[in-house]
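Q: Sequence in, structure out?
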Amino acid sequence: MDAVLHRPSEEEQKEAKLAHDTLEGASKYLEKEEGKHRVELSVDEGVKVSVPESALKFLLQYLHSLSEGQAVSILPVESEMSTQKAADILNVSRPHLVKMLENNEIPHHKVGRHRRIKAADLIKYKNQRDGEREEVLDELASQAQELDMGY
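A: Exactly. Output:
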């Protein structure tokens, strides 16, 4: 499955914001019975859709990203990808990604001569890297405040 990126128009951003806020408000009233975490949405007169809580959380995140004008891609966790696609996701060059793979920073395997990376492994690495960056930025901001640098 190829990822399709679509940058939302201003109108789509507004619609996504309204849908997000409406669904977020409705999600506060989820009835949480044993094993049943769902919300029912009325689509049309007489047409109701039961949505699992996990799907609702995903939809809220998706709508939030769209409302901010971000392009969003859905990537199945079990899928594998080429080094170019993985490099694009990490926003690094393909040669840099290959060096990372050779240094065993990200698990991968070869199919013939081609390297393949599992989406789950790439996302795990990306989340870890982003978390480390966030910690460093927080530390820098804290130091700047201590030194009264105007930040």
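The two ends are 44 Å apart (CA to CA).
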